Structure prediction request, 60 residues.
Amino acid sequence: MIKKTKSFLEDVKREMMKVSWPTHNELLNSTMIVVLVSAIFTAFIFLSDLLISNVIKIFY
Prediction:
């Protein structure tokens, strides 16, 4: 069991060395895109909900 765990951890370490980590600027740009898209979707859902609520109030 200990041999398997040790082998697993060595494999993890070997694979983590192959990972291509983003630079600070790439990470910042990706974060900004996620925040912007989230804000756009939030506004869309809010406005859709507001419109549907008002339409329902008119007919009921």
User: Anything to note?
Assistant: The chain is about 85% helix and 0% strand. The first helix runs from residue 2 to 16. Residues 6 and 12 are 10 Å apart (CA to CA). The two ends are 67 Å apart (CA to CA).
